[in-house]
Amino acid sequence: MTEFKNDDFANVMLDRHSVRHFDKGYKIDRSVLTDMVKEATTAPSSCNLQAWHFVVVDTDEGKEKLRQIFMPFNHPQLDTCSAMVVLFGDTDAFKKYRDLWQGMYEEKKITKERLETILGTFLPIYEKADKTLLTADAMVDASLAAMQFMLDARARGLATNPIAGYDATKMALAMGLDPVRYVPVMAIAVGKPDESQKELVSTRYDVKDVLEFR
Ligand SMILES: Cc1cc2nc3c(=O)[nH]c(=O)nc-3n(C[C@H](O)[C@H](O)[C@H](O)COP(=O)(O)O)c2cc1C
To answer: Could you tell me which residue ranges the Nitroreductase domain spans (predicted)?
Structure first.
């Protein structure tokens, strides 16, 4: 299990801010990025569908492909981050679902009856679902994993900026993916903050404006 550098949860969560200027010379090892994605995927997902897909762009060639479709105001993050993690929703995730639950049964995590109930209840929902529902579910799943990734980065002393300012119609193809199956959710710039740059600390609405009890 990862030993996080910062185990002060209040600091990790409450002091997270989008960072848009990174230390350009700082590289994050691919094994670390892999661990970060693995940890992000402990996120909950609808019926445990895990309809997320990550493309980690940490090469000049990959960044150049993103540059073609990123809005110019997002170029500083792209140019300076250690990696740009592009998150997609996988609208075909349900096709692996049977194997996942079968594996859980074989590991004796669930009984045969539970396996049959799950496959008989949830799988048909997805098999019959239209693209709109599959897309909506996949976007929620991937968004939860995205938030976990950003907090994981904080706990490692890194910073992030979630980004949706790009031509979403071109993202899947730019990353070599099937654009019918994979829906772009967001990209996340990750790296060491450039301490010489003053970053904005954004204001939130008063909780009273966004909260109701019934
Ligand atoms: C889905 C999403 C898309 C975003 N897209 C961009 C973007 O394209 N460029 C950018 O600089 N920040 C982007 N942001 C960051 C927001 O501007 C930022 O989260 C918000 O202003 C609150 O600031 P904070 O992250 O520092 O708390 C995005 C955030 C989210 C959640």
So the answer is: 15-192
Residue 143: give its domain's CATH number. Answer: 3.40.109.10
Q: Whose CA is nearest to atom 19 of ligand 1?
A: 18
- How far is the centre of ligand 1, averaged over its atoms, from the C-alpha of 202 (Å)? 10
Who's near 139: CB < 8 A, 6+ residues apart?
89, 183, 185
Query: Would you say residue 204 lies in a domain?
Result: no
**Is residue 159 in some structural domain?**
yes
* Residue range 33-92, pLDDT digits in tens: 999 999 999 999 999 999 999 999 999 999 999 999 999 999 999 999 999 999 999 999
Nearest CA to ligand 1 atom 6: 163
Please state the domain count of the chain: 1
Beta bridge partners of 55: 86
Asked if residue 186 is part of any domain, the answer here is: yes
User: Domain containing 165: what range?
Assistant: 9-90+138-193
Asked whether residue 44 is assigned to any structural domain, the reply reads yes
Return contacts of 166-173, CB within 8 angstroms, 24+ apart: 166/66, 166/69, 166/70, 166/71, 166/74, 167/69, 170/68, 170/69, 171/69, 171/86, 171/88, 172/88
